[in-house]
Design a protein that fits this description.
Distance between the termini of chain A: 40 Å
CATH topology of chain C: MetI-like fold
Strand order of the largest sheet of chain A: 1-2
Shape of chain A: flat
Number of strands of chain C: 3
Order of helices and strands of chain C: EHEEHHHHHHHHHHHH
Largest sheet of chain A: 2 strands, antiparallel
Number of domains of chain C: 1
Number of helices of chain C: 13
Number of strands of chain A: 2
CATH class of chain C: Mainly Alpha
Oligomer: heterotrimer
Helix content of chain A: 55-70%
Strand order of the largest sheet of chain C: 2-3
Chains: A mainly alpha (94), B mainly alpha (283), C mainly alpha (318)
Number of domains of chain A: 2
Distance between the termini of chain C: 52 Å
Structural class of chain A: mainly alpha
Largest interface: B-C, 96 and 97 residues
CATH architecture of chain C: Orthogonal Bundle
Shape of chain C: globular
CATH superfamily of chain C: MetI-like
Largest sheet of chain C: 2 strands, antiparallel
């Protein structure tokens, strides 16, 4: 079973990210089972439920980071923090 | 009253004339559309020396040598059979895993069903180029490199999602009351699924099988990357010949015609479902 | 339609699919993510470089050019194929054996293996043995391996030939679902052909056209095989799509780290378009998106009203 994963040249950050994603998806599924999510319309103009907002916020975080990479000498930390703030905003009011 | 009938008759005449004009225009466009393929067929029916020595719109000498060569040369007919093997394998495997899943999606709601359905779609849309390097290493790690099963598994990346989506579309067309009646009549789920439900959607399964076969058949990039010699697909054989010097245009065309034939044979039976298949069962 | 039953045992039915797709999609994605963070020289010689490869990919002029080029190609593909597809669909015979024959003839380019589409056009456009190449050369100088313009136009024409049938078939399916009564009503009103299209057909085709638009955009955004066979991405890099460039970096140069970072960014864009696609497809299944049921409205109102009450309560408590 493990040889399926063994050939990958693992690094710690990626391992944490994937474990984090797995935990998050499991958590959302269990949470959704006991407290069914309410669909609502936020400032995005889309009717979304909880996990869809999580997805949108992750994707937009990544998108902002890609844009920041394309700017020469951009400060990754500052961009990451502002992207994080934006994602939090989407989670709350999206 | 009479004037009305007259005008409507005249209107009919005019509209029929216009429809005729439109249909003529349509077939004219289709004739132009067919030219590249017609040209491919015509190239395959002439031998290479003839092609290179004179330009003829209508071939003066017909020769089937290229087809004979195609069937005689193990690297051609062999790779053709390789392609058929992994495509059929892929079709069967994809249907086997997709049928129960599509049933679940069409009949029940369960935690995370929508998200799972979406996740499947993203895999149908993912560019093959992204997966090349890891596939190359993964299939070597699990000893499936250069095997028909390996290619079949790799193509399940986009074919399983496709199958689930299309089958779900067909299954949702079967009223749910059927399941309930069967349950009341004391059918166990397995027996109901195999002896009643599957026969009911057999045309849908046929259409799905066609699309699975086709999308696996037309794919080149992944199939080429995870094979070397033993399971080399016909598509790779064709592109490798292209990069070699001294091209045999006639043989290449014959191989091209041979790869078009399987699809053309089946297409008549699925003609009303082609749009449905490409739109993932949503039209 | 009666509602679906809630049943979490259905998970057992989808489990095989989850396993298979996890094996073919998630494990490779894990590998790609790991490639992107390190410079791999050999099995035991790996240097962690953080986000350097991402920055390199995002600022690489070749990759930026390929991105812009591919975007231009996709836009042109949409601008040509969507109107042409609608036009052809409206010409198609609507009933009888002619309709069946037309369906088959239109669909044939779609079932030709992608590399054979390339081979067909490579032969067809050659200026010595190809019908198309010879014909065009009678009017103007045409050389696909030297002129960037000729190569670009050839790719565009080939893709139009290959994929317009898809748009046609989708639109045709949409047209057939319009009840005849709509047309009769329009005829009684004396509507012109243009008006019929604008006010009867177009509204009904909206969904089908969105599907066609997104499918065509995504497929042309990952196009590889056809241009690879016809031009190999040349002359120079004038017809090099994103997929061709990525394959060159990954398999040709074996530049694993750059390819990994590139792949992840590429994947991100596809995620965004897939989400759009999914939203369009399920629009009518989303409560509140097209029509709000009274129950939903009440829920929403309750949610909105809860907050002020809470804050008032807090004030009182303070």
């Amino acid at each position: 079973m493990l040889e399926i994963f063994d050939w990958i040249p693992w690094t710690a950050p990626i391992a944490y990210i994937f474990i984090g994603l797995a935990v998050m998806i499991t958590g959302l599924t269990i949470w959704g089972h006991y407290r069914p999510p309410v669909r609502r319309k936020g400032f995005l103009g889309l009717v979304t439920d909880r996990s869809e907002r999580v997805y949108i916020s992750i994707v937009s975080f990544a998108l902002v980071m890609v844009v920041s990479f394309s700017i020469v000498d951009s400060n990754t930390m500052i961009w990451a923090l502002s992207a994080l703030a934006m994602s939090a905003g989407i989670l709350k009011w999206g | 009253m009479t004037t009305m009938i007259e005008t409507s008759a005249a209107g009919k005449k005019i509209s029929r004339f216009r429809i005729d004009l439109r249909s003529w225009l349509f077939w004219l466009i289709m004739a132009v559309w067919a030219l590249p393929v017609v040209w491919l067929v015509s190239m395959s029916l002439r031998d290479n020396a003839d092609i290179l020595s004179s330009f003829e719109v209508i071939p003066s000498k017909i020769s089937l040598d290229s087809y004979a060569q195609f069937f005689a040369d193990p690297s051609w007919i062999g790779s053709y059979m390789n392609s058929i093997t992994y495509t059929l394998l892929n079709t069967v495997l994809s249907l086997l895993v997709a049928l129960p899943a599509a049933y679940a999606f069409s009949r029940y709601t369960f935690s995370g069903d929508k998200h799972l359905f979406f996740w499947l779609l993203t895999n149908r849309m993912a560019p093959a180029a992204v997966f090349l390097l890891p596939f190359f290493q993964l299939y070597q790690a699990v000893n499936l490199f250069d095997t028909a099963l390996g290619v079949a598994l790799a193509h399940m990346l986009f074919n399983v999602p496709l199958a689930v989506w299309i089958l779900e579309g067909f299954m949702s067309g079967v009223p749910k009351q059927l399941d309930e009646i069967a349950e009341v009549d004391g059918y166990k789920f397995g027996r109901f699924f195999l002896t009643i439900f599957i026969p009911m959607i057999r045309s849908g399964i046929g259409v799905t099988a066609f699309f699975l076969f086709m999308f696996s058949w037309v794919e080149l990039l992944i199939a080429r990357t995870i094979t070397a010699t033993a399971a080399k697909p016909i598509a790779a054989q064709m592109t490798r010949t292209v990069s070699a010097s001294g091209l045999d245009w006639s043989l290449l065309s014959a191989a091209g015609v041979m790869t078009i034939i399987p699809g053309v044979i089946v297409i008549w039976f699925v003609r009303n479902y082609i749009a449905k298949g490409f739109a993932l069962g949503r039209v | 339609m009666d509602a679906k039953r809630k049943n979490n045992k259905a998970w057992f039915l989808v489990l095989p699919v989850v396993f298979v797709v996890a094996f073919t999609a998630i494990i490779p994605l894990m590998a790609v993510a790991n490639y992107s963070l390190q410079d791999i020289q050999g099995a035991d010689n790996r240097i962690f470089v953080g986000l350097d490869f991402f920055k390199r990919v995002a600022t690489d002029p070749n990759i930026q050019d390929a991105f812009a080029r591919n975007l231009t190609l996709s836009m042109q593909v949409l601008l040509i194929q969507i109107p042409l597809g609608i036009f052809l669909a409206r010409l198609m015979p609507k009933s009888g054996w002619k309709a069946s024959a037309a369906l088959v003839v239109v669909a044939i380019p779609l079932i030709i293996p992608w590399n054979v589409v390339g081979t067909t056009w490579r032969i067809f456009t050659r200026s010595d043995i190809g019908l198309g190449g010879v014909l065009v050369n009678k009017f103007t100088d045409y050389n696909l391996s030297e002129s960037t313009f000729d190569a670009w136009v050839t790719i565009l024409v080939m893709d139009t030939w290959h994929w317009t049938p898809l748009v046609t078939l989708l639109v045709y399916a949409g047209l057939r679902s319009i009840p005849q009564a709509y047309y009769q009503a329009a005829a009684i009103d004396g509507a012109s052909a243009m008006a019929v299209f604008r006010f009867v057909e177009l509204p009904k085709l909206k969904r089908v056209l969105m599907i066609a638009l997104l499918l065509r955009f995504m497929d042309s955004f990952m196009m590889y095989t056809e241009p690879f066979v016809v031009t190999g991405g040349g002359p120079g890099s004038s017809t090099q799509t994103l997929s061709i460039l990525l394959t060159t970096i990954a398999i040709g140069q074996f530049d694993i780290g750059v390819a990994g970072a590139f792949s992840l960014m590429y994947f991100l864009f596809i995620q965004i378009f897939s989400f759009l696609f999914f939203t369009v497809l399920t629009l009518d299944e989303r409560p509140g998106a097209t029509k709000v049921t009274p129950k939903d409205k009440r829920k929403l109102r309750e949610e909105k009203e809860e907050k002020p009450v809470n804050s008032k309560l807090k004030k009182v408590l303070k």
